[in-house]
Every structure is written in C-alpha cells, then in structure tokens.
Amino acid sequence: MRVIVVGTRGSTLALTQTRFVVERLKENWPETEFKVKTIKTRGDEGASPKEQNIFVKELEEALLRKEIDIAVHSLKDLPTELPKGLKLASVPKRVDPRDAFLGRTAKRLEDLPPKAVVGTSSVRRKAQLLAYRPDLLVKELRGNVDTRLSALGNGEFDAIILAAAGLIRLELRNRIDQFLDPEVMLPAPGQGALALEVRLGDDLAEELAYSLHDPLSFARVQAERAFLRGLGAGCLAPVGALAQVLEDGTLRLEGVLLSEDGKSYIRAEIEGEPGEAEELGLELAQDVLAQGGRELLGAGPGWGGVKT
Ligand SMILES: NCc1[nH]cc(CCC(=O)O)c1CC(=O)O
User: Fold this and answer.
1) Which of 19, 41, 164, 282 would staple 230 via disulfide (CB 3.0–4.6 Å)?
2) What ipTM goes with this model?
3) Which CATH code is given to the segment(s) 3-92+194-213?
C-alpha cells in the first residue's frame, strides 16, 4: 500500500490547515495511510512577500521530485498559472473570505482617528484602505499571523488588517473586532480557500484529493482568479475580487482594480451561471480594462508578481 505524503509549509497556519485536510482525507479514505511533511519555503524565512511565488515554489518542487504527493496551499498564494506537470486537484469548502480589522483601541475601521497607523503589507489592502479613509497612515506589516498579532500588541500600530480565514482556522476568531464589508474591502482572489495540488498523472493522489472538492467554492475562486488573470496583473497588484452564490444559484462576481494610493479605482460586477465562472471573470476583467484599467495598470510599477 502506498503512503500518501501531504506537503505543507511550516507556519502555524499552514500546519493547522494541513492537519484539517489530512483529518478529512483519513475520514474519506480509512484504508489509506497519510503522512504530513513540512517543507521550508522562502516565504517562511522572511523573504519579501512582494516576491512572486515565495510560499508555493518549494512545495511544487517537492511535488515534482515526488517527495510529496499532495501539496496544501492557501489558494490566494497560488499563481493563476500552474507549472507544467502539476494539477489543481481540488478546492475544499471555503471559509469566510473577508478581511478582518483588529484595533488596539478603536474596534471599527470607522472609529479610527485621523492619522491612525494601520498595518498591512498588501497593496490591495493599502489601496482600498486609502480609497475609503485617505486620512489614515498605512505602514508595512510583515510576517506570519503570530508576528502580526504581536506587532499590534506592541503599540506600533493602531490597527491591523488580516484575512479573517487565517484567524478563524487558528481558532483566533475572538481576536477579530470587525469583518470588513466587501463594499469597502474586496478580498484577494481566492482568500479563505485552500488548494490541493498534485502531479499530473498521479491518479490516486488526485482521486483522494478530489474527495474534498467543493464545486461552488471552486466556481467562486475560478471566477475571481480568471478576473485577476484577465487583467494580466498577477496578485501583487492592487486587485480585489469576490464571487458569491446568490439564493437563486446565480454567481455574482465583483472586482476592483486600484492605483496604489487608492486615489483612482475601477470597480465593476457581473452575474451569470456558476458553470461559466471562468468566462465571467475574463469578461469582467475586459470590462475593467476598457473602463480605464489599462491606464491604471500602465501607471503602476509593473504589477507582475503574485500576492494577497
Ligand atoms: N498572504 C499570506 C496568507 N495566505 C493566506 C492567508 C490567510 C488565509 C487565507 O486567505 O486562506 C494569509 C495571511 C493573510 O493574508 O492575512
């Protein structure tokens, strides 16, 4: 019997997500033996999150070298194009995609005084914050979730913004003061979702991973990622996107492209069937590009990379 090795980064969040995935896999496949293998990535060693791919590349290399059979990623860290020989096997059920506000004294974004210092390292969060509250000061905040929480405790920041999903998975939901309304802060494409990646042709690993697949979560992130890809921007760019399934089953995709200072932005939405998620994302991207997005992208520093 083949032992299936599930690869993960070593951060507390990555390990927690992976343990959760492996528990579900064991439930579905009680006869199969699963092992977790931790892979060090440059992202964990403090490389700038502005570099493309830092959280993902080492895991993909380990897959290709057959050191691991299933890689567990945060979907938003995964570039929109996968390397040759690898395949996205499944997207499990997504948790809350929104961004979370954590304040030192103010408990809501609206309650921060002018010139309050907000920590984030994401240009997407920075641009949307400044679009909504141009009076705030945005300061670089790096590191994993634990590091960011202690930076808030140190008094260096009046507030920080993090993905709600990470805090929820770490059972730190009680630290969240406010879930930011997507009207104000559209999440990163894929935020709150996981991705299970396998080698092309490893049918066993693919079948095991696919048992965790959630088609509606997949349709949503497919639309969001197609929007990003259609912009030709990569996730280093100030781009937000959120797809939701309405009560009648319609997929609604909202997307925004901003300038880094938040002074200009183009926001648009589109509705259609979950089955045409990819087309909807690409169409919305064309719409945003035609409405001035091309000029916005041209003015930026070449948003090639990938991140949040
Ligand atoms: N950029 C790193 C990263 N990748 C995934 C998450 C959170 C969990 C998720 O979105 O699934 C985070 C931390 C954050 O942005 O606050």
Assistant:
1) 282
2) 0.94
3) 3.40.190.10
